[in-house]
Amino acid sequence: MGTRNFEWNWKCKSTFEQPPIHVYKLEQTLSHPLKQINTTSKLETVSHNEKLSFIDPLSANFENADPLSLMAAQEDWDDLDLNVEPVKAPKRGLEMSDNPWIEQRTAILNKFTTTQKLSISLQQHQERGSSSRDIASNIGLKNKLEQLDDFEELTLRQLEQLSQAEYVETVNSFGKVLVTAWNHDFRVKALKVAIQCAKLLVDTSVVQFYPSKFVLITDVLDMFGNLVYERLLAKAEYYPSGSKIMSPLPENFTPDMVPESAKETCRNWFYKIASIRELIPRLYVEAAVLKSYTFLTNSELSDCVNRLTLMTRGIGDPLVAVYTRCYLCRIGQSVFKAGPELIRQNLKDFLLLYEQLFSPSVHHQLSTQKVDLASYLGTYVPALDWMFQGIANSDRHDFLDELFKLCMEKRNKGLLLNSILSTFKPEYIAQKAEVLVQQISSCFGESFPLYTLLKMMGERLRGHTTSNSNYIKREIWKLVSKLENEGDYLSCVQAWIPFIIAHSSTSELNIVLGDIIDRIGSSTKFSCAILQDIVITVASNFPDMDQLFTMDKFLPLLDVIRSESSRAMACQRILEIFCKSRTAESTADPVTTDALTFIAKVLHDSVNALSVDDEKRQYGQLISQLIMKIDFGDFEQQLRFYVEARATFMNLDAVIVTLVHCVNRIAVETGKKVKSHHTKRTAAFVHACAAFSYITIPSVTSEITRLRLYLVTAQIALFNQSLGQADACIASALAILPQLPLSVEIDGKMCQIQPYLSEFVKNLLSTLIIVPDCFEQGMLYLTRGLVNMLQQCVEITGIAAITRLYLDVIRMLSVAARPEYPYHVRKVDSNDILYGSDPKFLTEINSMSSILLEEILNNLQTLGEQKDLEEQAAISFELFQYVIEIVNLESEGMATLAYQLWLLSHKHKCLDKKMAMRLLDSLKLKLPMYPANSAFSLLVSKLKI
C-alpha cells in the first residue's frame, strides 16, 4: 500500500481506451528527469554526459536550473510574520462555491469523523554548505544540481497525537500561512505549503477520517489555484482593438488576448509544478492550477486532464486513487465544463482495479488499524457518488448503460450498487428494478451492508411503478426478513412501506404489520422514531381511513412504540390525517370511532404535569376536531358518546368545552325538531343534556369560560322550557363573579378582566328580561342576586366599571317594567305575562332602581374624591342620557337631578361636545309636548337650549 517512490511507464493503446490489466507492461524507472543520481553513496560513478543523456526541457529554459530551486534561492521566508489579513476570495478563479460540492463536502465533514489520534508530517528545510542565495550566482549545471540537492535535503517534523479538532485547526492554519505568504510575495513558500498539504493525502493511517481529510486539504489547494489564477489575471492586461489604453481581460477572454509577459509567468508556474518530484503532490497541485492553462491555450485543456487521469494509474493505494480521480473530475467540470467522458474514463479505470479493494494488502492494513471492511468501503462512497452523479446527470444514456453493465459484472458489487442507487434517477432505477433486486440478493453475506442497499432502493422507488411489482415486493421482503439487527430491519421497512402500501391489499399489509410486531417483540434495540415514522407513513398513504382500522395489527403496532413522546406524536399525526381527510364529512362507523377514540386517549394520557400549555392546546384542539366529526345520527347515542368522551378526556379543557357545546347543540336540534312542543321523552332528553352541561362546566379551569358556558347552557335550557336548569346555571354563574381574577389568559395572552365581565353582564341582563320569576324565590331574585354579586366585584374591576354595570341593570329594569317585552321564548311565559304590570311588581322595580341610582350617585362622589374626574364626567353624562330618555321629567326631583348631572358632566370639560349637542337637539324637539311651566320646560331653560 502507499504511493510508489518511482513512476510507472504505462504503455496503452490509446488515451481513453484502456486494455485489460494483463496487457499492461510495467517498467520500473529509477531515474528522474529533474534529479541527478547521487553517485557518491550507493551507485557507481558515471560521467557527467551519461548523467545528462536525456533532454531536459526545463533546464533549457532556465539555464539548466530547476525553477523551483531557483525561485527558492531568491526568497527568504523562514521568519515570515503571519499576522496579516488574508486576501479576498478570488472572483474568477476556481469555483469553490459550486452548490452540489458544497452540500457534498458538508455531509462528508459531518459523517466521517474519528476519535483516534492523528498525525501530520511536515518537511522543513535544512541547508547544507552554502546559503540558498548563493544558488542564484552559480552558473554551472553541476553546481546548480548539487545545490538543488542541498535545498531539498529535508528533515521531518512530526505532529502526533492530534485530536480531530486539532487536526482540522492545523490544516486550516496551512491555508492562512499560504495566503499570508502570498500577500508578502513569497510565492515559493505558498507553493511549498500547497505541496505539503497535498502530501498529507498520501497518509491513510486513519482510514475512516480520510474523506474529511480530502475535503480539508482540497480546500487549501483550491485556494492556491485561485491565488495563482488571480495573479495571472491581474498581469494579463491588454490593449483592446482600436484602443491605446490597457484594460483587464474580459470575462470570456481567449489566449490570443493574453500578453506574452503573462503567458511567460504562467509557464513559469507550470515549470515550478513540474519540478515536484512526488507523484501525488505534483498531480494535485497541477490540478489545482489547471484553470490557468486558459491563459496559454484552450485546445489543450482536455489533453492535460487526460494526462493527469493517466498519471493517477501510478497511485498504489486505491483509496487515495479514487479521491484523486474525484478531484480531477471536479476540477475538470469547474474549469472547462468537462463532459461525462472524463468521469467515464476515471470510473472505468477505477473498475479495472476494483478487486484491489479486497486484496490481502488492504485486509492487512485494515487489520492493523482495526477497521472492518464495511467501514473501509464506506469511505469510498463520497468520491464514487460524486463521479456517478456526473454520469447520471448527463444525457448520455449509453454511458449509463455501459457503467451499469460494468458494475454488474463485478464481484463484491455492494459498493457499486450503493452509488448506482443513490445517484441514478428514480426512473432508471424503476426500469432496472428486477435486475437490481437480483444483484442485491447476490450481495447477501458480503462486506457492504445489505440493509443500506435495501433501504436506498426502497427510497428511490417511492412513488414510482415497476413492471413486476409483486416479484420485487416478494423478493425484497425475503431479504429484509433475513436482517438480524432490529434497527436495520426497521430502517428497510421504513423505506419500503410506501411501495408495499401502493402494491398490496389490505390483508397483505396487515401481514406485514404483524411481521413487524412479531419481529420487534420485546426488543429495545431499535429507534422508536423509525417505528413512529412507519405508523405515520401507513396512515398517510392508506387511501381509506375506515379501511385502515379494519386491520387488527395497526393499533397493536402503536403499543410497540415504547417511547411516550414518539407514540404521542404518531397518534397526533394519525388524528391530523383523519381530520384533514374528512374536512366536510363525519363518520359513524363503530370500528373507526372506537379506533380513533383509543388513539385520542393515548394522546390525552401523554399529557402530564411537565406538558407545556401550547402542547395541551394543540392536543385539545385536535381531539375536539375528532369529536365534532363523529356523528351517529341518533341524539341519544350521540349523548352516550359524549358522556364516555367526558370521562376519557377530563384533563383537557378544550375538549371539555367542546363537549359542552356539542351537547348544547343536540339539545337545540331536539327543540327545533319538535318545534318547542316537547313530549315526555324529548323533555327528559333535553333535561339530561342540560344536566350534562351543568355537571361538566365546573371542571373547566378558566373562570370566564365557565361564565360563558353557564350562560349559553341557561339560554338553551330556557329555549327548551327547562326553567329549573336555566335558573341553576345562572345562579352558578353568579357565584363565580366574586372569584374572578384581575386578569385572564385569552389565546395565550394575559388580559384585564373588566371588558369580559362587562360583556357577560350585558348578555346576562338581556337573558334575565325573559327569565320568569320563581315564586318561591320572590320577584326579580336573579337580578337582585346579580346586583349583590356586583357589589363584591368592586376590588376586581374598580368603581367606574361597576357603576357602569349598575347603569346597565337600571336599563334592564326599565324594560322589565314595560307591559310587553320586546322579545320572548316560545312556550315560556315571561314576567310581563306572569305579572301583567302588577303594581307590586312595578313597585319592586322602582325600589331596586332607586337603590341602584343612589349607589351610582355615591360612586360619582367617590370618583370625585379620588380625582378620577374624567370617569366622573363620562358616567354623569351617561346617567343624564338615561334620565332624560326614560325617567318622567315632569317630576321636579328628576328634573333637578338631570340638571345637576348636566353640570357635573360639563364641570371638567371632559364631555363629548358633538354627542351633547345631538342630545340637546332631541330635547328641543320634545319641548312643545310639555306645558310652559312644567319641570321639563324649566330644565330646558336651564340648559339654555
Automatic annotation (TrEMBL):
<dbReference type="GO" id="GO:0015031">
    <property type="term" value="P:protein transport"/>
</dbReference>
<comment type="similarity">
    <text>Belongs to the VPS35L family.</text>
</comment>
<dbReference type="GO" id="GO:0005768">
    <property type="term" value="C:endosome"/>
</dbReference>
<protein>
    <recommendedName>
        <fullName>VPS35 endosomal protein sorting factor-like</fullName>
    </recommendedName>
</protein>
<keyword id="KW-0813">Transport</keyword>
<keyword id="KW-0653">Protein transport</keyword>
<dbReference type="InterPro" id="IPR029705">
    <property type="entry name" value="VPS35L"/>
</dbReference>
<dbReference type="GO" id="GO:0032456">
    <property type="term" value="P:endocytic recycling"/>
</dbReference>
<keyword id="KW-0967">Endosome</keyword>
